[in-house]
Hints:
- About 70% of the residues lie in helices and about 5% in strands.
- By secondary structure, the chain is mainly alpha-helical.
- It has two domains: about 1-70, no CATH class; about 115-410, no CATH class.
- The chain has a two-stranded antiparallel sheet.
- Helix 11 packs antiparallel against helix 21 (about 385-410).
- The model has no long low-confidence stretch (mean pLDDT about 85).
Amino acid sequence: MHEILMGFLSVFPGLELFTQVPLITSLARVFLILFGFTLCYLGYKEILEPLLMIPMGTGMAMVNAGMLMMPDPTNPSIMKPGTMFLNSMISNPNEIVNAMQVFFLQPIYTLTFPNGLIACLVFLGIGAITELDIFISNPRMSLLLAICAELGSILTFPIAMAMGFTSPQAASIAIIGGADGPMVLFASLRLAPEIFVPIGIVAYIYLSVCYAGYPYMIKLLVPKHIRGIAMSEFEIKEVSPAEKIAFSLIGGTVLCLLFPVAAPLFVCFFLGIIIRESKVSRFIQITEDVILYGSTLFLGFVLGCLCSADVFTDPKMFKLIILGFIALFLSGLGGLIGGYVAWFFSGKKLNPLLGIAGVSCVPTTAKVCHKCANEANPEAFIILHCMGPNIAGVITTAIITAVYVTMIPKCGF
């Protein structure tokens, strides 16, 4: 009977692999397949962010189903579990060229992930959907709230080091607190490429969880009558397209001058804004419909395909899951503290939810804050006010990323 069973399994290499790997790897495969189904379902129901969760969940489920024993690229005489999707660990030029002819996602990964291009493309698209009016109208308030919402990006660094990570790894993990996916990818690729895959997976899963988790934090810490403040007394000053273009050109140039290591991200973000305000319809359509959504689709799908059982069973993964939660929790908490301070000094007229919008997951956290306010008071329409600290959060996260990337190698600790 055993021989018949093994003969049957040999016809299906994906099933046969369960008998050739440790039990923990097999259990991880099953878990990740089911987890991929769950992410896809939650994205479909819009409980989590569908733009990311649907492609990520699909990739995660199918890459763990499509595993088989393959030769190790560095030593073909050794057989190990692998997939036909991609190999993120190869670095030798000859191995990369060979891999790009074998693995179907390898060209996308090799040509857009290690050099940060995928992050820049997403930033270009984000810039094209960004409305600058409220930020330019009141930059001081927006930046102060965004700085408070960087609490996780700062405090997670020493916590990660205390848990055994090196300073470059700890800095990469801390950037998760900024809730800016492209920034996390950019920082980890520059500082800690050896843990880029698990950091990217944890970061993007948690960024989508913000969509579902932050409302509970808001309802727990902000009374209904306060989160329902409509901010009707705060007038949004109309800013002309010329002013927005001028701000983008000058602000982007100054930030590139001060923090050149993050210049590619600044350039793409502000170029997206300039494209939006230039009113050139063809540029706008391509940037939004093709670049933003196309790069987001492949970003989520490739990250899902990177989440194979061997990555998930890495002992560091559990620590990263904990630290990712700590980073985003602290940032949300810091944002609400800043929001309460602004609420108090505004004569209790400013909605403190604007603070959590400073967590720069554009425009997710802004939409979450608006939804929570609107549920408490149907007359509270604060989405435009939320966009100010939301955009400021992108800038402050980029600055902190640039500081980490610049200073950590120089400090050498």
